[in-house]
Amino acid sequence: MQNIIEVANITYAYPRTDIPALNNISFSVPQGQFVAIIGPTGAGKSTLCYCFNGAVPRLFGGEMSGSVVVAGKDTYENEIPVMAQHVGLVVQNARNQLFNVNVQCEIAFGCENLGFPRQKIIQNLHDALTFVGLQGYENRQPTALSGGQQQRVAIACVLAMEPDVLVLDEPTSELDPIGSEQVMETITRLNRSLGKTVILVSHDTEFIAQFADRVLVINDGSLVLDGSPREVFSKADLLSSCRIRPPQVCQLSYELRKKGFPITDIPITIDEAVTLYEGLQHG
Amino acid sequence: MSKSLVVYFPGQTFFHKLDPRTKIIFMVLVSTVIFAVQDLYLSAFILAVMVILWMVARLPVAIVYGFLKALLPVFAFLFIVQALLYPGVTPIIKPLIPSFIPWIGGMGQINLEGILFAVLLMFRLLAMVILLPLVSMTTPVHILALGMVRMGLPYRLAYTITAALNMVPILQSEIGVIVDAQKLRAMSTFEKGSIWSKVKSYPVLVTPLVIGAMRRAQSMAVAMDSRAFGAMKTRTYIEDINLRPVDWIFMIASTIGTVGILILATKI
User: Fold this and answer.
1) What is the pLDDT of residues B23-40, one digit of tens each?
2) Which of A15, A225, B186, B225 has a 20 to 30 A CA-CA distance from A130?
3) Is some CB atom of chain A closer than 8 A to the CB atom of B219?
C-alpha cells in the first residue's frame, strides 16, 4: 500500500520558546489507515495536527526542521490552501471553525474557494450533509446548533472538499456524551465506508481500542510508542508514566494480572474481556 | 439595544429583493448626500426617506428607538454645545452672565441658530446610523460579499468586510457571557453602578473580550486557510445575483434624487 503521509524528523518550537513542542518525530501512514494519536495535555498532539496542512509553521511562526509530505505535496513548498485539497482539518472548538451565515454557505465555502463547478458543489454539499446526518439543516445558523451538530457540520465542510486525509484534533472534547457518540460514529464511517485516511487525536481510549488501526503515543513532543491498539494498551507502565488513561477493561486486567491471575494477552475491548474472563472462570 | 443589529433580518419585501449592487450604490449615494447637505429641511427629508425605507423593508422599529436611546447623550451634548457656542443673532435666552463682567461677560446666550444647527446635526447623524443596518439587515452577508466582488472588489477584501459584519453578533453574545459571568460573581456595576463605577469596571469587561477575540481570530485564520481560503484565482459562487428591471429603476431613481438634492442644496 502507498503511503499518503510521510513525516520525517520534524522538530518544531513555537516562537519565543526554547523547548521544542515537537521533537524529531517520524512516521508514515498508508492510505486508508485509521490512526489515533494519544498523549497527555500539552504533549504536542495539536501541534502535530497543524503540521499536516502546514499551519505549523506557516500561521504560527517558529522554527521547524524535517519534512511533512501529504499526498506527494510537501508542506514547505505548498501553501495551506493548496494542502487543504488533500488534508481536511477539524479542530477542537467547533464554534471557531464555523464562521459563515448558514450551514449551506459554511459547507460550500471550501468548495467555492477551490473553484469546483457549481453543480459539483451542490452535489457535494448534499452528499456531505447526508453523510453526517444533517439533511435539511442548510439554512440553519451554525452558531445556533448544538456542539455535536456543529462538529458534524465542521466534518461535512472538510468532507465536501474531497480530501484524502482527515485530521481531527479532539473533536469531541467539548461535547456531551450523545454528541460525542454521533461524532465518533461519523468518524468511523469516514474511514470504513469512504476509505478516507483518518488521523484522530482523542482521549477516548475505549473508542480508539475498538476502531483505530494504529495508535501513536506522544509525550513531551516525542513519539514514544507506535503500534496497534493491542500493542499500545498492553503497555500499562508506559501509559501510566505518560499519564494516559487506558480503556477500563485494560485497567481491570492489569490489576487482575498483578493479583496473580494468568492473563497473558490484555483484552482491549469489552467483548474480548468477556471471552477471557469466562475462560478464567471455567478454567 | 436589539441583539439582531446589523445581522440579516429575513424578509420578502421589495427592498430585501434588490440586488446587493443596487443597495451598495444606494448606500454610497445616500452617504454622499448626507455629508454634502447642510440644510435643515433637506436633511429632514433624507432622514424621512430613510425611515420610510426602513418601514418598507419591515425592519423592527424598535431598533431605531434603540439608536435614538443610545445616541441620546450625544444629542444632549450637541444641543448644549451648539446652543451656547454657535454664533447666532436670534437670542432665545438672554446671556446668563451679565455683560459688565469682563472677559466672560455676555456668554451663555442661547441662539435659535445654535439649536437649529444641533437639530440638523442630529438628523444627519441619525440618517447615517440607520443607513448601514438598512442595507446589512436586508441582505445576507454572503450575498453582500458577492455583490462587492461583482463590482470589482477583490474577494479577500469583500470577505474581510463581511466577516467583520459577521463578528458583531458574535462579540455581542460574548459580552453577554462575560457580563453574566461577572454577575454570578456578585459584580453588579454594569447594571446599577454609577457612570464612574461603570467606567472603572470597563477593563474587566474589555480585557477578556479582546483576548477572546484575538484567540478567535487566530483559530479562525487556521480554519479559513484549512478550507482553502484564496486558493484559486477564479472562485465559484453557488449563489447567483442578477440586476432586474426594478434594480435599474431604483438605481436611476436614487441617482436622480441624489442629483436633485445636491442641486437644491447648492441653491439654498
Assistant:
1) 999 999 999 999 999 999
2) B225
3) yes
